[in-house]
């Protein structure tokens, strides 16, 4: 319980206290606190409980006319009263998480410069070269444990949004706190503004980023190298999450840094983990084995290839030879099916290039490959049209359909489309939330393959174990653990992910699985606590107000 000496001047008072979002309690300051902290006359007279304040927040959110206005209200609350923001988010996560992150954050990023009100996090540019460590030292909190960083090149399925992409790290870190209890003071969002190739942003007078072409080549690499080294120096136990980097850099940067720093790429590894978990749960519904699946991916970027690699690894762990496991994963990129005869493939795609006739369209591929599972990570809206879905239903008693592209406007199909065109036989998950579907007297509950089920728990596990690296084995363990959190009741409703209302317990379980990987693999110098589950839970931030109790001086 925080204490203060009301004569020492060491604790904020009056307006300074009300303007500190980490300490401000608004109308919940008690009469004794108001008197001791110089708050008389600065607040309305009626004293509220935190629960009454949460009710007030939800009342106001529901009054707003559209998701973007709701987003702005919540971000404003985060700027004023951090504990109340997180208490409302934790208590109403299913309602509020689509507002602070996908799908609403996509629209917020598109409008970010127009909506800009106050700085959040750290922004770095090529003009900070040689001084990045100095810039990071300007951040007021020294015990940062998680950094989410982007260069804004591939924001969700919306493309290059430049500095407007800062909304993504801010939103992701809100979920680290709400879902895994990582203290907001331990979280730092970073935008590395290397310019943008989106000419519309250049001509927008409201744009807050650099109106110049993106850095490439050695100059780009040198800037990112300096950031990674400086971040590790300033925040020695930090975990760095790469977010929404473009395809040309994402795999390259992951390969460059994964063995040197405690880092991962959420679009590659986090998406893979949550999709593998969803596949495990879907197979429990249809009573199938992962080693028997034939999977077609629409898209061959970082998300799809990351999923393919983790799924193939899971098949290998369950007995398949590597060649056979890779042979069960098929990819369709913008030019068609990835096959051995194509000469335009990079190294990551070539791993999945099979000796097979080339087919141009997805419809042709489905008929030729006869997949049991169709996964979309393409950003192509409505790409899973009626012809595709009906073919999947014809080929499979229970087709697995994952339309993962975000935001909702980029989804390959809707949940209703998937159920309607498969006569209700599809096992479906989207990347964004979809409402329940009523059809022929049945209620279908779509799953949401949201990375929020994975990355917060992984981060908590890395933090709890003080791991020095983040490994693919951790994401495989997280996927298996997430599947184990899906109950029989969930499966009976067609739900292949647990309710978001349980996310803090789910994240704690994933953190335990990840920490065990770290200790077993000697990825940490820390001695494993005797009660590791209890230790993990003790680290979790709880956004409940403390009492600021006056300490009287003696003598």
Whole-number total of structural domains: 4
Which of globular, elongated, flat, extended, rod-shaped describes the shape?
globular
Which class of the largest domain in CATH terms? Alpha Beta
Query: Structural class, from secondary structure content?
Result: alpha/beta
* Mean residue pLDDT: 95
CATH superfamily of the largest domain: NAD(P)-binding Rossmann-like Domain
In a nutshell, what does this entry contain?
This protein is of the alpha/beta class and 555 residues long. It contains 25 helices and 16 strands. Residues 1-8 have low confidence and may be disordered.
Provide structural commentary:
The longest helix has 21 residues. Helix 3 runs antiparallel to helix 4, helix 22 packs antiparallel against helix 24 and helix 24 crosses helix 25. Strand 11, helix 20 and strand 12 form a beta-alpha-beta unit. This protein folds into 4 domains: 95 residues, Hemocyanin, N-terminal domain (Up-down Bundle); 163 residues, Rossmann fold (3-Layer(aba) Sandwich); 171 residues, NAD(P)-binding Rossmann-like Domain (Rossmann fold); 86 residues, Malic enzyme, N-terminal domain (Rossmann fold, 3-Layer(aba) Sandwich). The protein has 25 helices and 16 strands. The N terminus is likely disordered. The strands form 4 sheets. Strands 9-8-7-10-11-12-15 form a 7-stranded mixed sheet, sandwiched between helices. A 5-stranded parallel sheet has the order 2-4-3-5-6, with helices on both faces. The protein is of the alpha/beta class and 555 residues long.
